[in-house]
Amino acid sequence: MNPVSRNPLDLSEIRKRLSLFLTSKDALACARVCRTWSKDFLSAIWHTIEDSSQTKLAALDPSIIAKHGHHIRVLKSLPPQGKLLDMLQDTSVSNLKSLSIVTTPTQVLLAHYYDIIRRNVGSLKMVNLSFPRPNGVGVYFVTESLSPQTHTGDTSKLSYLKLQGLQMTRTAFSMLLQSCPVLEHIDMYDTVLHSAINMDKYQHPRLSKLTAPIEQVFSPDPAMTTAPSLLIHFPNLSQWETWQISQTLNIDIDMINKEITRCLSNFTVIHTRPGGLSLANMLIYGFKGLTEICVPHKHLSPEFIIATLNHQETLTTFMTTPPSSDTFFQPNSNQQIPAVEDFLTSSGWMLHFIPRECSRLKKISLPTHGIRMDDVDKIGWMCNDLEILHIRVKGLDTEEQINVTLKMWLKAKNSARRNSKPDLSAYDLYYHSQERDERYVSIEARVARHLLKFEKLHTVWLGTKVWRA
């Protein structure tokens, strides 16, 4: 009878679970321990094919790809040509979950790419097809490549799809949506949908998120100005990330607002990227009942602030930094304190009307706008359910000042949990100069006192790292 091992790594199941958290380099080292370990770490080694690993893979014998291709789940960038592309067309590469193709392809390469897509259509969850078109002519998209064949019994698992630099008919686009029943997020840019009078306008019941510029959404066919917007396909759309490509928008803003009102009954979240898009008009006349608004900081204006107040009964999140490029708020971030910018100049005080009037706010993120505590005290914030706050305060300019402020807040918040009432001692509240003038309240104490007004506040960033209560 074999003795029971006390080493957890002797169990195959534990090794397999551990492999999910290793880099391919570490997984390779583990696989070389012995033949038994090799079987458990093979899937981690082959899981993801990146640009950096393509040269080494191309040097392998094709039989190795044929043997282990069924382990590949993520192809971050298909090679534009060469031996590796030929090797990846092996029938063993048939369990991909994520595929990204970013290149300017020839017709021959397209045929190879579509074959790989078609072979993996039953397992793919994320697909990125980005084809820059220097000659101005988009690549024709073969819709059938993403449509499972009936005889195989496969159903599409695709939840995210990005299309750039393509062209297809509007009916083909409807067929594509219909063949992807669990699609939740579509990202479109520079893609032409050729329209016709009797075209299909399939409405996807599940898709909830759209990433596309204004021009793509409201002018999908430049040759037919009367073509309906993309919004007609997405009756349950709730989130849209958008921007404006050209400096001058050649689309009637009234038409845009009418289309938004007509098509987006369940819409709640709008994010915009840097560009010339003016959101104020759409916030007043188009969107209704938004819960989340995110705009570039330089788009803040008195007009925008007033337009935002149109959603004061529903707004719970107000941001000037999109989550996708969020680098300020990492828990272990040690980056330098970002510079404060003020695009509002003398109108910065108006920004405080948002936390005063939008009482349902739970998150405020203004990482590059420096607020003045005098404005805060005069106008007042009434968002008592606030939970997350990312702000810069003028006067809190050093890491030491910020840390002192947040230590005050945490100390008083912890005492409130024990005693049901915050305890800020005179030592914490006042800045004692050499003359010990207690009439002067420090900026650190003023900010800490402001934070304590929000009992539900648990996450704060003032310019350095995130602090959590």
UniProtKB/TrEMBL annotation:
It comes from the Eukaryota. Gene3D superfamilies: Ribonuclease Inhibitor. It comes from Modicella reniformis. This is F-box domain-containing protein.
